[in-house]
Amino acid sequence: QGKQKKARKYAVMKRMISLRDQRLNEKDRAKAPVKKKEDPSAIKEREVPQHPSCLFFQYNTQLGPPYHILVDTNFINFSIKAKLDLVQSMMDCLYAKCIPCITDCVMGEIEKLGQKYRVALRIAKDPRFERLPCMHKGTYADDCLVQRVTQHKCYIVATVDKELKRRIRKIPGVPIMYISRHRYNIERMPDDYGAPRF
User: Fold this and answer.
1) Which of 35, 65, 80, 102 counts the most CB atoms within 10 A of its CB?
2) 95 Cβ contact partners less than 8 Å away, ≥ 6 residues apart
3) Domain 64-187 maps to which CATH number in 3.40.50.2000, 3.30.160.150, 3.40.50.1010, 3.30.420.10?
4) Nearest Cα residue to 60 out of 177, 187, 171, 173
5) By three-state DSSP, how is residue 149 classified?
6) pLDDT digits (tens, 9 = 90+) for 70-98
7) Residue 105 to residues 138, 140, 182: CA-CA distances in angstroms?
8) In sequence order, what are the residues at sequence separation of 6 or more whose Cβ sits closer than 8 angstroms to the Cβ of residue 139?
């Protein structure tokens, strides 16, 4: 029988001497970490995100009629499919005057969809809609809506997008309007501080 060939090992590191090895001098050895005893009387610090003061009442005090509703692209499309009049259905849902708001990036998104969504574009250009200018680059509407709602807690977000809903639920004090069973509904969920979402 011939000599068995050993497979060559690639990227094998050279063995390094441990800093606690007995062969090292005392001054070169690594010092053992000293455990500090916890002081029971010391104040324990915890990092808690700061919520705006308007949320410490029963609910978000900045929300009130007339309601300003940020509309998403797919919300307009689903409203057309469900044959719902946007402004009238919002008023039926909230029993108050509603002002639908549309941002520049949502408008850009609808324009990009092309000829197939011309009805949605005509609805978005309705004079009853309030137009909100965007200062950021690009036309990704979801990021714009989340940022706007984080800064100003005076909006209700109207969307059917699951991913956007999930992101907005993390922001306390922001209600979500959605479509189910051919009508608009408001999502009521308790927040971190115990107040109802709406």
Assistant:
1) 102
2) none
3) 3.40.50.1010
4) 173
5) helix
6) 999 999 999 999 999 999 999 999 999 99
7) 8, 7, 27
8) 105, 108, 109, 112
